[in-house]
Amino acid sequence: MKDGDLSTLLYNNKTNTMVTYFSGQAVTLESGNCDNADARNIMATPASIPVPSTLSGATPFEDDPANDALVISELSKTRQEYVEKANAFEIEEELRQELRKARRYRGRLRGQLSELHEQMDNLVKDDDETRKALKELERREVDLRQALKESMMYVVELERRDVELMRLDVRSSVSGLGSVVGRRSARSSVSAHSMNKANLEDIERQEGTGSPRDVLIDKEIGPEDSVSACVHHHHQHHQAPIPFTRVSNHPPSTRVPPGVAAAAACSNEVPSDGRWARRVHQGGPDGQAHTYRPFCDGATIGKLTVLDLKESFRFAQHCKHLEELLYESGAGEFKVTPSLGQAFHPFGHLRHACIQKLLASLQKCPAVLERAQSAFSTYGNEWSRIVEACMSEFSRRSVLSLEMEKRMRALKFGGVREVDNYIKDCVCAFEIYRQVFPHDRPQHANFVRRILAQVPKNIAMAVVKRCRDFAPESATEWETCVPVHSLDGSTNHTIVEFLKEECRLHEEADRLVAPSGGPKSDSVRLLEASGGQSGGQSSVNPREWVKKYAVVCGITGKGCRDRSRVEKLGQADGILARRDKFKRPYYLLGYHDKGKCESRRNEFPKDLYRSWIWDDNYKPSLPKTLVRMNDELSVEGAGLGRPSVVPSASSSSSSINPVVEDSISAVAGADSPPNEVVLRVSLKLGSGEVHSSSCLVDTGAGGNYLIVSDIERCRSLGVVEIPPVSVSLADGTVSRILYGVCCSIAVSDCDGTLACAFRDCQLRALQCPGPLGSEDRWQVLAGRDLINSWGLVLYGTRRAFINGKCVFESNSLKEVPDSPDDVVCRVVESPSSIALASRGIASSSGLESPPSATSEQQAVLCPVASEIEDAHISSVLKALTRKEWVAIPGTKGAYHCRVRELLPCEIVDVPGLQSHVCEIRVPSIPRVPAKGRSYSKSLYSRLSPTLQEEYAALVEGYLSSKWWVETSLVVTPSPPAQIFLVPPPSQSKKSRLVIDFRELNKVLPRAGAGGESPMLFHVLGLLRTESRETTLLCDCRSAFYKIRLRNFILALESALGRYVSTRMGFGVVFGPCGLNGGLSQLVGEARVADFGGLDLLYMVLVLIFLFVDDLALSGPTLPTVMKFKVLLILLLRVGFDAQQRKVHALAVESREDELRSALQ
């Protein structure tokens, strides 16, 4: 075909005007009679567009049935001409040349249409000329859009013909039937003609009475019509995705049109899965259905954006979202199977790409990734098998239930301003709840109650009331009246929305009454303690400056931003500007007359300023504790132990945080005395006069106090001035003490005899109105100083002893005299030590014992187990071995630990006893480049010769124990960790080697500081309050190095050489939680295991505490010793041993003989 054959693209029968495309230019070939005189010189520009033949006789917006029929007839004729001209091409080169020209022309029309729209947008005025111009532009837009549609029709037909020629060429080259290409071309031409005719008829039936313009717009070329890309051959064993069906006004018919059947018969092939969507027309007299198959290949799947899985319990949701994404992309389909129900199945040629996409999305969750890779290596490209393996391990109900319970316990309401974070945590827990209890109404009610239990009572009541408003009349449970959370956002009537609205309401109410300024804007003690900085006007020392005046007043608050106003209100004899550590200004006003100072202080508005009187005698001491008062300020100048009040606003939020130096827990500002340990004491004053009094014991107070009602009435007691002390009472009030009393105190026992002779002490005078400070008697409060001086032994709040004499006994014990003393708060060790049966472990041939300084330190406690105990311990170890890898708490699944049997070739830490080891699996890490130079040798050179010898001895100890192995070449992902020596702070301490793992810890996954290990004060508090008659303590020796690493090597470098280690060194980020993960399994099994039928006795009476590598057992003597023995044997079997010098026993005096006999 020549270039002139494109002339029929724009041919107007009415005007006899034809524009032909030659060499990229539109040229007018012929011009006849036109309706518009300007159309005689028609060019392909926005100003002059030839009127298309299909719309030259009618306006496209007219809704005339006769006109619509005419337009459709002309459209069918035009499209048929395009089909015939496209089918006339037999040579691919000529066809593609014509296709390039048609595409360029189509692009030019699109550009002209865009320029036309821009011209229409530039019309701003509203006059006759503008409306006329706009009308002309609209007419040109209609013509240009119609021309664009016809050009697109022609491009579509040329592309269709191009694909047909490519198929014929491929088929002829494969089958050797090149001689029939012409015949097949003719057949395909006829079939294409019938298919396009059928398409037009289908459009007419589907659109009904729609306008012809809407018909053409709906049939414009789209992404599914583009056939210029490469065509993929169909694999008959692959299954096509579930087709997308366009909804029709009529039910679809299953009859295949003759044109489609003929085309399929002529081509003798199955339709391809190519880039352009295969459109199947299932037409009939009633309607049609269009089926689309989007193109998808490996590259398409690789470009998909998928969120990474970060938490293992979310695998089910993650997999569901990924499957839906792959289905929408055309990579697979959902099938219903008897075993799995509705499950996703990737197409055969895309299975590997889909699985690799799944594995790539699991990179941030090492546990799930490892399980998926293991299933992949076992089952290959079986999507359902891999998903099922991960679901069974990470999405089963028990795992999700534990995760939900963990998140529910962690819920914490941080206030109305933090309600969004609280709701986020609640919704996260609810997502897990839906999978664990999908249809359980009691669990749903419990879930809602636990959410509202964390919020304030008034907010919870408002939420409950809202829920009841939506409850039906017959409903009895308000918890299930509304959903917890709307997944699709279709309703706001949910628990979390009610909670959010109530919190927003309270937040707005708080803003209405909240005063301006922060709680520290008038912190007087903060100003004094910080020393202050010059505000720019003066650099003098304030303590030197105040000596010039009789009285100095301090002014602070937000009003200090305006210095001129402060000077006007103060009218002081001198002013010094200062700033606190928060860079906020305050001023010191000096006066020569005290009366003038008081009068000018009252002139400062209380809502803008705070004032105080400078007291140069105040000298704060350390350590200091910040506490909050109720509604007043304790400041300098407070005398006689009574809290002074600073004039301030009436709002309680204006209080500040004063500095206190002691805290009394047994005394409050209330009038009722506390129920505590009270002793009978004799008080001898300086004059020699002796008074009988009572003594209140408070272990929370540091100093000793004399509680009086009025300090002025106690002048006869010999009151002396003492350094000022600020004391916090139990109710939060703070008292300032300036006076004290020197005296001697003796303690009497319950029978009235002397238990402790007079001891000199100084009591701070604490003024406390009420029964505690009555006028006719004085009361002493003994703090930790007097308790230690007397040697007071407290058995909870039930008994107290001094020198073996009972000085206090609770009234409840008198009523029940036989109640046991099972709570010990403080234990004084007996001078005689309790001998423990033990034996040492000697080094055997080929096995080195762990490094230690002396033979005495090498002695470890090794009890001998009976046959029954040995059998039970073996059963416990078998149960631990069967668990395999268990996620370590506090590591978010990054690290795992297990207990396994010791291999014959491995190093034994406890020869003759060890049979198992505890092992940690560390995830792989990227390679870390070395930064800086090695500094271990430079630090070693600075040590003294004695310390260098200790350094070498310590290194040799690790080498002899086989915990470190010397090597000349270190190939590890991270640079070697540097080893240096920390000298002892005193002679009683020993030197230690420290390993710098900072570079390695930066690339390792984060781990909690100890996982689920309790804080130290928890352990000490429980031991003090819950300890029984006997307590046994032990420490696991070098516990960190008893943990072995799986597939991970630590590189070390010292001044004496380079080493590698497969043991968990002290200093790695996962060290504390790794040790806790190993020992907690052993201790947990020992806590619940049945040893000799005494499991009930053990669990009820014996308490077991584990803190890192320290163990404590407390309970009745015999069960505690038996439990301690079994636990030691269990630890020895896994390689953890306890040195004899670090094993201690504590017991009450009445049980000492029983303990000795039990330990022998």
TrEMBL record:
Residues 72-147 form a coiled coil. This is Uncharacterized protein. Keywords: Coiled coil. SUPFAM superfamilies: DNA/RNA polymerases. It comes from the Eukaryota. Residues 513-540 are annotated as: Disordered. It comes from Perkinsus olseni. The keyword Coiled coil applies.
